[in-house]
């Protein structure tokens, strides 16, 4: 709002230049707090229902180490490239930023593709969302994450379009920055999905 | 408001470092989980420790959580979120497994 | 209207009559406060113990409250020396009213913790006697009691010997119910696929009201049973007699009981534990209902065989 | 389609048929009046699409009053049924639907929106801001709350209400309740929950980032503090509810196995997750109430709040503890002694910070100069009554004793003593207190006092006997009892009290009408001799931009402080002439209400598993989001209020000043 005055200092990154920008970025952090609680709740369901595998295939039989590591690395890399995009943005390099964002999108798409393929494979093996409590919570946990990735991709496409049209302004920079926060957060969540679902799923 | 971004405008050191660390931690976790003979409790504790470190890397090196005019609120908020998350997960499991 | 005395009189007299109504309402035989067994006794003692603290707190707060609102009400001859608009706190007082509640909480926690652990075990006074085991199963909307040793099953009433510990193994066939005999002891939930243990003991011969106190749908208000304490001889002869005269419980009869409805008090000389243990099998009643067309979707039997599912009890449902 | 409607419209019950007809007639009546007086455009531009926090606040409060009426009628029906034993006024089925909707509506669609309304109205004014941080989201929040509420409420005439209690425990709510009722519960709460979450985020950002210059954290009014802390609890607790509801929705619609009896599901997980949200929820409603009482007590005691800092510390402690006590709602589920013991201790520990607050209120009254206005009466009545609710809560918190109280009327009495004495009293008090700010005149004090005494005495007559019923073993949620149980006398008393409460509520509402007709209009902003910034606006109803000039804050109780200082300097205070600058304000939004209409469509479709309609709703929602983000391409910057307009709006000041 108007009363949040502009901070005029030169070395302030673009996305923090407007009052609205600062509000939105801060608001987004608060929103991420809510997201943490959301995922934590799904995780709690997952852990509680972990033993409910009766009547269906066991996760340790179906998970494939190489596949999950590949997915993890892809998402990690996309988080990295997304960070590079912000780095370029802060240098004022619009083109560099756009390129890195596109790379991020590509990796994101790749991740989604692998996840969908994995789901198809699992369903073929007889592990569907209705098989038992374990698989229900598996699909809801990974699916919620996947849905977030999908939304993130859609959102970034919109923002890229906007930057192409109007260039880098405090307004667009803020949007890019916020969407990058979102993207890193997806990786943040994935670390825990990877650890508790796949890695420990294979250990047990 | 202090922004420390312009300092490393030439090469994104912190990003590269964070990236490499993340990869290393991921493989370390896989190694601990699948290629050691530790007890299951130790494994669980270790891999979650690694996961939390990696999460912190995301927050500080990628997400610039320590920037902005209210960075303390931001950091406090995320710490509180982590605490709530642990309460939710550990609490639920503890409570529900204690039922006969 | 509210400026004059009369209005205040009305208000105060109604408040006083309220107290009188309530006090009159407190009959001496409020069942929770008139327990007939050691378990209820522990709980009553705890309740009374806490009640003293609470009454003290309430009295103190009411007194201070009345004092301040009468003394500091703005009125014609208000003494301005009593008025200190900038009084913003007092560290000493604040420490006091943090510490005293803290002490009270500690004082309440200790007997509570002790009671919690005591209640998990058989009553101490009769520790030398081997507890009788009775399975209590809630089905919409009736209680089924099985005596595995004696091979007796009763519906909507349970006979126990007086002065003898009874270990109830509580479960349910469908909804989550709560097993409660207020005059004998506090409640615990029964849940399909899970067994909760509850020790109870009656010290006096008599019939006590028991019920399901947890909401389970339309017939819940009527899901009651008689908890009958007999003296030892009467109890033994009841066991003997029932074994001889009561009919056997067939699975067919039992399946009728699985349908949601109330039931009459009945007695059998064999138990349902021979064909199902609801503590392990959470879907038995659902299947029966599906067979009767009461549930739209049939409960699938999985290829691997339903029995395997039932016994691969996952962590939290583990049976003791 | 027609068959579908015929199948689900409930026509066989005279009570509901009557309700059907009266709802239909009222709707037609409202539509007619709007059309006749050509008010549609006004309604759309001034209210539906508004982003003005004050108007959104008022809409919340209106909706909440309506829901209070609905929930209250439910309560009276229940009391009518329970007055005598073996009564057949209501069938078991109806009774079950009614207590379920009563509990759900009172907590989620009455208490929550009432408080959110008061927060919306007062907090930006209290911190000297022009609006909340995200005005668009604020409008969206209101409408998603509203469409959730409507969705929940139509269950009663169309398809049947939920009937598994407001706690909606599995397996009853999954295997035991096949109709659409539970779906209504799940989706109604889901849709309105989104709104609440957004409000939480909005207020955290507003309060942290938009305070007037000089208002440090330790100069914030207490209501602002409680709003801030409540918002944090909302941000952490509501996602839990979102997930919990979603998982059961999946169980019911898509065949998953989270809470089912079959295939490894765990019904206790529902109770666990529900209360992980549910317990913080009761503090979400009571903390703002505490804030309201703090403001009112300080104002009419004419004294600064006692122990301001410890009030804040205790708030923070309560908010943290509220997340680690949830198990006290199911001590009887068979957890180990260790679990029950730990949760008993955390539960009872909440008495300590709450006690600090209580004693601080008493401290505020000490050496004060009390004026018994109606808002003050409600606030004073809160103190002793809430203590009864609180200490009985501590008794419930002792797990070993709770085995005897659980599911009994002792519990029912406890939570009405906290919810009504804590929350409902605060709603009444807050509404009367800020009423002159909202509409420009006070509510009539004499009628207000009648309402107050009827309601509070009725309240005690209704619920005090219920503690004793609990000791006598009367379980909750039973639609009837037998004469032999010996519960008749106290139930009669309780019903008489409920009737008095109903009367009190009616008098309260009548007062709104009466005051609208006859009250003297206020001419300036400070009608109660207030202490905080909302009273510092020059006109009695603040202009839509709130403050022509953002005030500078130098102290707690800023406005009081300003007045004291002004008194010292000159009698009149300095006159601040002109020098206004154009004010930037956000523009209205039509997107949010439309989007929420689609929420409603999607929710309704899911209730009846009408997939085509659900997809339609989802597409609609997505389109609205798209429109919104394309709009923000244009950098919708709102508009400026011109200096002339401001000078005009600030007129009364010049007349008076
Ligand atoms: C606004 C709502 C509200 C509030 C504020 C509270 C406050 C408290 N509640 Fe209550 N509660 C509910 C609403 C609320 N509750 C509802 C709706 C339910 C039932 C839901 C359902 O099942 O449908 C419920 C149920 C409920 C239960 C579950 C019982 C059961 O199901 O068997 C318990 C058990 O521990 C409990 C405890 C407490 C405690 C310890 C407090 C404490 O916060 C109270 C603290 C306050 C005081 C203690 C008074 C002031 C303090 C002093 C004067 C200091 C000195 C005092 C002492 C040292 C004791 N509540
Ligand atoms: C903020 C929350 C709130 C509020 C304000 C109230 C207000 C009231 N509540 Fe309730 N109540 C709950 C929250 C609340 N309640 C909850 C959460 C439950 C648990 C539900 C569950 O078990 O799932 C519950 C349950 C509950 C029960 C227990 C039901 C049972 O277990 O079987 C009872 C019984 O007496 C009751 C009574 C009342 C009464 C008499 C009021 C009174 O204050 C109401 C005052 C009356 C009015 C405001 C009506 C005014 C209107 C008129 C006078 C018009 C009359 C016109 C016609 C009849 C056409 N409530
Ligand atoms: Cu609680």
From TrEMBL, chain A:
Gene3D superfamilies: Cytochrome c oxidase, subunit III, four-helix bundle
Domain Heme-copper oxidase subunit III family profile: 26-202
PROSITE patterns: COX3
Annotated catalysed reactions: 2 a quinol + O2 = 2 a quinone + 2 H2O
A Pfam family matched in the record: COX3
InterPro entries recorded: Cyt_c/ubiquinol_Oxase_su3, Cyt_c_oxidase-like_su3, Cyt_c_oxidase_su3-like_sf, Cyt_c_oxidase_su3_a-hlx, QoxC, Ubiquinol_oxase_su3_dom
Presence of the UniProt keyword Membrane in the record: yes
Subcellular location: Cell membrane
Membrane topology field: Multi-pass membrane protein
Principal place of residence: membrane
Record-annotated membrane-spanning stretches: 26-49, 69-86, 98-114, 134-160, 181-201
The EC number(s) this enzyme carries: 1.10.3.-
UniProt entry keywords in alphabetical sequence: Cell membrane, Membrane, Oxidoreductase, Transmembrane, Transmembrane helix
Function in brief: Catalyzes quinol oxidation with the concomitant reduction of oxygen to water.
UniProt record similarity statement: Belongs to the cytochrome c oxidase subunit 3 family.
Protein name in the entry: Quinol oxidase subunit 3
UniProt lineage: Bacteria, Bacillati, Bacillota, Bacilli, Bacillales
TrEMBL record, chain B:
TM spans (from-to): 12-34, 40-63, 75-96
Keywords from the named record: Cell membrane, Membrane, Oxidoreductase, Transmembrane, Transmembrane helix
MF terms in GO: cytochrome bo3 ubiquinol oxidase activity; oxidoreductase activity, acting on diphenols and related substances as donors, oxygen as acceptor; proton transmembrane transporter activity
An annotated GO cellular component: cytochrome o ubiquinol oxidase complex
Membrane topology of this protein: Multi-pass membrane protein
Enzyme Commission number(s) from the entry: 1.10.3.-
Gene Ontology annotations of biological process type: aerobic electron transport chain; ATP synthesis coupled electron transport; electron transport coupled proton transport
Reactions catalysed: 2 a quinol + O2 = 2 a quinone + 2 H2O
Pfam families with a match to the protein in the record: COX4_pro (PF03626)
Keyword Transmembrane: yes
InterPro entries recorded: Cyt_c_oxidase_su4_prok, Cytochrome_c_oxidase_bac_sub4, QoxD
Function field: Catalyzes quinol oxidation with the concomitant reduction of oxygen to water.
Family the UniProt entry places it in: Belongs to the cytochrome c oxidase bacterial subunit 4 family.
Protein name: Quinol oxidase subunit 4
Annotated organism of origin: Priestia endophytica
UniProt lineage: Bacteria, Bacillati, Bacillota, Bacilli, Bacillales
TrEMBL record, chain C:
Location of the protein in the cell: Cell membrane
Record keywords, A-Z: Cell membrane, Electron transport, Membrane, Oxidoreductase, Respiratory chain, Signal, Transmembrane, Transmembrane helix, Transport
Domain Cytochrome oxidase subunit II transmembrane region profile: start-end pairs: 24-123
NCBIfam families for this protein: QOXA
Record membrane topology: Multi-pass membrane protein
Signal peptide positions on this chain: none
EC number: 1.10.3.-
PROSITE patterns: COX2_CUA, COX2_TM
Family membership noted in the UniProt record: Belongs to the cytochrome c oxidase subunit 2 family.
Known function: Catalyzes quinol oxidation with the concomitant reduction of oxygen to water. Subunit II transfers the electrons from a quinol to the binuclear center of the catalytic subunit I.
Main location: membrane
Enzyme superclass (EC): oxidoreductase
Catalytic reactions of this protein: 2 a quinol + O2 = 2 a quinone + 2 H2O
Residue stretches making up the Cytochrome oxidase subunit II copper A binding domain: 129-241
Amino acid composition bias (Basic and acidic residues), ranges on this chain: 304-313
Region (Disordered): 297-320
Stated name of the protein: Quinol oxidase subunit 2
InterPro entries named among the record's database cross-references: CcO_II, CcO_II-like_C, Cupredoxin, CuRO_UO_II, Cyt_c_oxidase_su2_TM_dom, Cyt_c_oxidase_su2_TM_sf, Cyt_o_ubiquinol_oxidase_su2, QoxA
Entry's transmembrane regions: 7-26, 46-70, 91-110
UniProtKB/TrEMBL annotation, chain D:
Keywords: Cell membrane, Copper, Electron transport, Heme, Hydrogen ion transport, Ion transport, Iron, Membrane, Metal-binding, Oxidoreductase, Respiratory chain, Transmembrane, Transmembrane helix, Transport
Main localization, broad class: membrane
Cofactor(s), names only, from the UniProt record: Cu cation; ferriheme a
Subcellular location: Cell membrane
Functional pathway: Energy metabolism; oxidative phosphorylation
Gene3D superfamilies: Cytochrome c oxidase-like, subunit I domain
SUPFAM superfamilies: Cytochrome c oxidase subunit I-like
Cofactor binding annotation: Binds a copper B center. Heme A3.
Transmembrane segment boundaries: 15-37, 58-78, 98-119, 140-162, 182-208, 228-250, 282-300, 312-331, 337-356, 377-401, 413-435, 447-469, 489-513
Entry membrane topology: Multi-pass membrane protein
Enzyme Commission (EC) number: 1.10.3.-
Domain (Cytochrome oxidase subunit I profile): residue spans on this chain: 38-554
Organism superkingdom: Bacteria
Catalytic reaction list: 2 a quinol + O2 = 2 a quinone + 2 H2O
NCBIfam families xrefs: QoxB
Similarity comment: Belongs to the heme-copper respiratory oxidase family.
Function according to Swiss-Prot or TrEMBL: Catalyzes quinol oxidation with the concomitant reduction of oxygen to water.
Protein name (database record): Quinol oxidase subunit 1
Lineage of the organism: Bacteria, Bacillati, Bacillota, Bacilli, Bacillales
């Amino acid at each position: 709002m108007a009363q949040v005055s502009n901070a005029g200092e030169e070395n302030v990154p673009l996305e923090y230049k407007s009052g609205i920008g600062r509000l939105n970025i801060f608001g987004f952090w608060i929103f991420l707090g809510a997201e943490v609680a959301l995922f934590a709740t799904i995780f709690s369901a997952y852990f509680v229902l972990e033993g409910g595998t009766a009547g269906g295939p066991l996760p340790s039989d179906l998970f494939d180490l190489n596949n999950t590591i590949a997915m993890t690395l892809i998402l990690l890399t996309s988080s990295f490239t997304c960070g590079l995009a912000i780095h370029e943005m802060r240098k004022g390099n619009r083109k560099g930023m756009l390129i890195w964002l596109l790379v991020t999108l590509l990796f994101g798409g790749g991740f989604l593709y692998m996840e969908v393929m994995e789901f198809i494979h699992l369903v073929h093996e007889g592990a569907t969302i209705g098989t038992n409590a374990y698989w229900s919570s598996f699909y809801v946990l990974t699916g919620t994450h996947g849905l977030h990735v999908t939304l993130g991709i859609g959102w970034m496409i919109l923002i890229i379009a906007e930057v192409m049209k109007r260039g880098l302004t405090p307004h667009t920079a803020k949007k890019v920055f916020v969407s990058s926060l979102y993207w890193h957060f997806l990786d943040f969540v994935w670390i825990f999905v990877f650890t508790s679902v796949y890695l420990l799923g294979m250990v047990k | 408001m202090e922004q420390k971004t312009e300092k490393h405008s030439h090469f994104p050191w912190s990003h590269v470092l964070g990236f490499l660390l993340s990869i290393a931690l991921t493989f370390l976790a896989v190694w601990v989980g699948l290629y050691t003979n530790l007890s299951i409790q130790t494994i669980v504790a270790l891999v979650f420790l690694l996961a939390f470190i990696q999460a912190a890397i995301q927050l500080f090196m990628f997400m610039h959580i320590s920037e902005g005019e209210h960075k303390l609120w931001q950091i406090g908020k995320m710490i509180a979120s982590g605490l709530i998350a642990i309460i939710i997960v550990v609490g639920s499991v503890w409570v529900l497994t204690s039922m006969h | 209207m509210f400026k004059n005395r009369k209005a205040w009189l009305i208000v105060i007299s109604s408040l006083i009559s309220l107290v009188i109504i309530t006090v009159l309402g407190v009959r001496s035989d409020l069942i929770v406060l008139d327990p007939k067994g050691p378990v209820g006794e522990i709980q009553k003692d705890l309740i009374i113990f806490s009640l003293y603290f609470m009454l003290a707190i309430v009295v103190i707060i009411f007194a201070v409250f009345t004092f301040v609102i009468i003394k500091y009400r703005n009125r014609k001859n208000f003494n301005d020396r009593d008025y200190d608009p900038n009084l913003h706190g007092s560290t000493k007082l604040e420490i006091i009213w943090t510490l005293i509640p803290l002490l009270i909480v500690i004082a309440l926690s200790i007997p509570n913790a002790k009671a919690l652990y005591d209640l998990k075990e058989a009553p101490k006074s009769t520790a030398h006697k081997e507890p009788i085991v009775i399975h209590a199963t809630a089905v919409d909307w009736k209680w089924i009691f099985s005596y595995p040793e004696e091979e007796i099953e009763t519906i909507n009433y349970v006979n126990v010997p007086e002065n003898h510990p009874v270990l109830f193994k509580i479960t349910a066939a469908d909804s989550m119910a709560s097993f409660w005999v207020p005059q004998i002891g506090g409640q615990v939930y029964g849940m399909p696929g899970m067994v909760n243990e509850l020790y109870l003991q009656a010290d006096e011969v008599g019939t006590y009201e028991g019920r399901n106190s947890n909401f389970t749908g339309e017939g819940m208000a009527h899901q009651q049973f008689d908890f009958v304490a007999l003296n030892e001889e009467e109890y033994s002869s009841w066991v003997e007699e029932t074994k001889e005269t009561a009919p056997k419980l067939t699975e067919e009869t039992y399946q009728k009981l699985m349908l949601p409805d109330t039931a009459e008090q009945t007695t059998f000389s064999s138990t349902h534990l021979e064909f199902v243990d609801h503590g392990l099998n959470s879907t038995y009643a659902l299947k029966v209902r599906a067979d009767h067309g009461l549930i739209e979707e049939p409960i699938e039997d999985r290829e691997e065989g339903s029995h395997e599912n039932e016994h691969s009890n996952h962590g939290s449902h583990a049976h003791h | 389609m027609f068959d579908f409607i015929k199948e689900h419209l409930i026509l066989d019950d005279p009570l509901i048929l009557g309700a059907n007809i009266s709802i239909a007639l009222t709707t037609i009546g409202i539509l007619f009046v709007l059309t006749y007086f050509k008010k549609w455009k006004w309604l759309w531009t001034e209210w539906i699409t508004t982003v003005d926090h004050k108007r959104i606040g008022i809409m919340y409060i209106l909706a909440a009053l309506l829901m209070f009426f609905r929930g209250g009628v439910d309560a009276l029906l229940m009391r009518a049924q329970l007055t005598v034993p073996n009564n057949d006024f209501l069938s078991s089925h109806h009774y079950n639907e009614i207590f379920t909707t009563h509990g759900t509506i009172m907590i989620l669609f009455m208490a929550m929106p009432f408080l959110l309304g008061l927060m919306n109205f007062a907090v930006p004014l209290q911190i000297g801001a022009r609006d909340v941080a995200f005005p668009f989201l604020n409008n969206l929040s209101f409408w998603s709350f509203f469409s959730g509420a409507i969705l929940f409420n139509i269950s009663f005439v169309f398809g049947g209400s939920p009937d598994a209690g407001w706690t909606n425990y599995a397996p009853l709510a999954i295997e035991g309740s096949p109709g659409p009722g539970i779906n209504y519960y799940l989706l109604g709460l889901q849709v309105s929950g989104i709104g609440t979450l957004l409000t939480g985020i909005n207020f955290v950002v507003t309060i942290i980032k938009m305070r007037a210059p000089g208002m440090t954290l330790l100069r914030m009014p207490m209501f602002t503090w409680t709003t801030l802390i409540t918002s944090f609890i909302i941000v952490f607790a509501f996602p839990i509810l979102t997930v919990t509801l979603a998982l059961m929705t999946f169980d019911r619609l898509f065949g998953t196995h989270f809470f089912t009896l079959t295939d490894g599901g765990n019904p206790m997980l529902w109770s666990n997750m529900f209360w992980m949200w549910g317990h913080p929820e009761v503090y979400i409603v009571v903390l703002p109430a505490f804030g309201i009482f703090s403001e009112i007590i300080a104002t009419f005691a004419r004294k600064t709040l006692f122990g301001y800092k410890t009030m804040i510390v205790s708030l923070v402690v309560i908010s943290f503890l509220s997340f680690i006590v949830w198990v006290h709602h199911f001590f009887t589920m068979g957890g180990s002694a260790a679990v029950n013991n730990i949760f008993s201790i955390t539960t009872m520990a909440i008495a300590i910070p709450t006690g600090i607050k209580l004693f601080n209120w008493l401290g505020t009254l000490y050496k004060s100069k009390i004026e018994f206005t109606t808002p003050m009466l409600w606030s004073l009545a809160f103190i002793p009554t809430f203590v009864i609710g609180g200490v009985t809560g501590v008794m419930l918190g002792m797990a070993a004793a709770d085995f005897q109280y659980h599911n009994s009327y002792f519990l029912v009495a406890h939570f009405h003593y906290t919810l009504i004495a804590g929350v409902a009293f605060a709603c009444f008090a807050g509404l009367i207190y800020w009423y002159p700010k909202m509409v420009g005149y006070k509510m009539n004090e004499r009628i207000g006092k009648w309402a107050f005494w009827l309601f509070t005495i009725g309240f005690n007559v209704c619920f005090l006997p219920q503690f004793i019923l609990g000791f006598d073993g009367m379980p909750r949620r039973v639609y009837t009892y037998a004469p032999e149980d010996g519960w008749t006398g106290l139930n009669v008393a309780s019903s008489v009290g409920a009737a008095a409460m109903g009367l009190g509520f009616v008098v309260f509402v009548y007062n709104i009408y009466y005051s609208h007709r006859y009250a003297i209009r206020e001419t300036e902003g400070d009608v109660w001799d207030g202490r905080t910034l909302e009273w510092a606006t020059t006109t009695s109803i603040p202009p839509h931009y709130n403050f022509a000039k953002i005030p500078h804050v130098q102290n707690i109780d800023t406005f009081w402080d300003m007045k004291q200082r002004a008194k010292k300097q000159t009698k009149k205070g300095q006159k601040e002439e002109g020098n206004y600058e154009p004010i930037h304000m956000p523009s209205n939004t039509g997107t949010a209400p439309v989007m929420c209409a689609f929420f409603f469509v999607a929710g309704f479709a899911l209730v009846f598993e009408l997939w085509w309609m659900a997809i339609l709703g989802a597409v609609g929602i997505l389109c609205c989001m798209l429109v919104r983000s394309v709009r923000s391409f244009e950098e919708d910057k709102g508009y400026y209020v011109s200096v002339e307009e401001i000078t005009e709006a600030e007129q009364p000041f010049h007349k008076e000043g």
